[in-house]
Please model this.
Amino acid sequence: MNAVFWGLLGGLATLGVSEVLLRWWRPRPVHTFWKLGLLSTVVRTLLVLSLLGAVLASGSLDGRLFTPALLGSYFVVLLVETFRHRQVIRSK
Model:
């Protein structure tokens, strides 16, 4: 159960990364928004892969429970981020 909790928390942390980058990028023009999407994807992917690598290498949590929880919450955050980006683009 502990592995599932930390996996969900790790995936949800990517939402925080997205929000920070979105607030930082907001004053820029809309036509450069693709750069935010690319930057956000790279940063979130590095975060998820580093969390996954650290947990699997250390063996501190059960990887069979941690991995699906991490990836599942990460994909949910991708959907949320898509709607947030569309909202920001439409508001400009």
